[in-house]
Design brief:
Number of strands: 37
Radius of gyration: 36 Å
Shape: elongated
Strand content: 35-45%
Length: 544
């Protein structure tokens, strides 16, 4: 029998053991450092615009339901209804059409199930005793047929859509926690399905995901459990191999995607500790053969892990979570290293989250359900974000007739590399004398590379000083007198002499023709604009 090591205390109390375990767990968590590499990206959303839908909206999906080339929204409501909001193509939507489709609709997805190129709907619907999965075929005008319930399901906790058997028809995979079974419904291509092939996992399935993990062209099956997920590699015919367990942590939720641009499927996960500490965000990078590298901790998680999508224009998936009326966004630097999360308010509450480019500007927008207000909130992505360095004129003080220059630096803060238009304006500051200077920017438009800068040259020109009336008048009188002496009669010459001496006297009285220069001040404002986003910077010029 093994003896207790001498360095351990004798019979520690349960409280001391609990405290020790907490300390060890926190130490392990904090020793996973997170280094941000490269330039930070900036993403900004417009203020959320709410649209009324059915009671207690839970989930959302985006697709073109009426075939007009504009994205629409379908919302699943816990009141047993579905709300369809047809898009106008500019990020705004028509009044929702809400219809009954069940009892308590928990989730919704869209895919073409019958080959007519129109996205159909798949929903999960709960009653007091079961949660079923049903299909609603699209009529093509943004309306849908009656619900066709799939057979043999007890309590569906999750479902996923993909072509798992390679016949080009959409298939449906359902996790059934009531029967502890995974049902694989192979699509016939007409909106109906074959009898399910059942998989019995070794643990109760929570959520399921379909993604090609070993790069063989067939989607594999990931099933989350209590402390990780099981990975079932596809045989390509709708059947799967025995599960390989991948450990992540307790209360795992995952999202598969290529996080580091190497063409291999990785996993982003939110997990909790054994003592219910705050959940934290980690990644498991894929090797491309169905195995994964060790976990890398990103930091503390916030909200419920929701989706992967590119929000900063670099074509690399970022991570989105939601909760408490906010959306949390972790920007991916392209190598599975992430910035600290950006938070944006979606409404008093938030539940289901969707993402798509709703207004065709190339930037991914957010759609968030708001259960308390019975609404869905749309947050348009502003796209290009930029900043301007301070302008410094060289020189900052000139005399009239001279010019001065400055270099304008435009910084692109994300990867939306669209042209940025530049303009300038000169405004007198205080009591300014003389003509207002003019300004010119060359070039008048710049297109910085992703997270990079571009420059434009600002030139400010002034016109020569104009003689004052008090200076010109004496000379005019004297000049008239000289002309009269040359060409006039005696009487005119006598008058001319008076004019000459009068002009000279006026010149002396006006200070000898010398007027001290007047100092004028001007503000020069440069504006950089891309779409609805603009920034300005201002500098000052003194003209003698």
């Amino acid at each position: 029998m093994c003896q207790r090591p001498a360095f351990l205390p004798t019979r520690p109390s349960a409280e001391k053991v609990s405290s020790l375990m907490r300390s060890l767990f926190l130490t392990c968590l904090l020793t996973h450092t997170f280094a941000v590499r490269g330039n930070a990206s900036t993403v900004q959303f417009d203020i959320a615009k709410a649209y009324a839908v059915g009671n207690t909206p839970k989930a959302v999906v985006v697709a073109d339901f009426n075939g007009d080339g504009r994205l629409d929204i379908a919302v699943a409501n816990l009141s047993g209804t579905i709300s369809i909001l047809l898009g106008k193509g500019d990020g705004t939507f028509q009044t929702a059409n809400t219809f009954t489709a069940g009892t308590q609709i928990q989730s919704v997805a869209a895919s073409d199930l019958n080959g007519d190129t129109k996205p159909d709907l798949v929903i999960s619907d709960s009653t007091l005793t079961s949660t079923q999965v049903g299909v609603l075929l699209n009529s093509g005008a943004g309306t849908f047929g009656s619900v066709q319930t799939l057979p043999g399901i007890t309590i569906a906790s999750s479902f996923a859509l993909s072509d798992v058997d390679g016949d080009l028809n959409t298939d449906l995979v359902v996790s059934d926690t009531g029967a502890n079974v995974i049902h694989v419904f192979r699509g016939k291509g007409d909106g109906s399905f074959q009898a399910p092939l059942d998989i019995v996992p070794s643990f109760v399935p929570k959520t399921i995901h379909l993604a090609d993990v070993n790069n063989d062209g067939s989607p594999d099956l990931a099933i989350t459990g209590f402390n990780g997920f099981g990975l079932l590699l596809s045989n390509g015919d709708g059947t799967f191999q025995s599960p390989l367990f991948v450990s992540t942590g307790f209360s795992t939720s995952i999202l598969p995607g290529d996080l580091n641009q190497d063409g291999k499927t990785d996993v982003a996960a939110f997990v909790s500790g054994i003592f219910n500490q705050k959940p934290f965000f980690l990644t498991r990078l894929g090797n491309g053969d169905g195995t994964f590298q060790s976990s890398k901790s990103i930091g503390t998680a916030a909200g419920t892990l929701s989706l992967l999508a590119d929000f900063d224009g670099d074509h690399v998936p970022d991570v989105v979570a939601g909760g408490g009326g906010s959306v949390f966004l972790w920007i991916n630097h392209g190598d599975a290293m992430f910035q600290a999360p950006i938070s944006t308010v979606a409404g008093p509450t938030s539940s289901g989250i969707g993402a798509a480019d709703l207004n065709g500007d190339g930037a991914t927008d957010l759609i968030v359900t708001n259960p308390v207000q019975n609404a869905v909130s749309v947050l348009l992505n502003s796209g290009t974000q930029l900043s301007l360095n301070s302008l410094t004129l060289n020189p900052s003080s000139i005399t009239r007739g001279q010019s001065t220059t400055a270099t304008l630096t435009v910084n692109l803060l994300n990867s939306f590399t669209k042209p940025i238009a530049l303009s300038c304006e000169v405004v007198p500051s205080g009591q300014s004398q003389g003509p207002t200077p003019t300004c010119l920017l060359e070039p008048k438009s710049v297109s910085p590379a992703a997270n990079a800068s571009a420059t434009s040259r600002l030139t400010v020109n002034t016109s020569s000083a104009l003689a004052s009336a008090s200076t010109l008048l004496p000379f005019a009188i004297a000049s008239f007198g000289l002309l009269s002496i040359v060409s006039g009669s005696f009487r005119k010459r006598r008058f001319a002499l008076v004019a000459i001496f009068g002009g000279l006297a006026l010149q002396v009285a006006c200070g000898g023709g010398h007027t001290p220069p007047q100092t004028s001040g001007y503000s020069i404002t440069v504006t950089a604009k891309s779409g609805a986003v603009q920034q300005t910077t201002t500098t000052f010029l003194t003209v003698q």
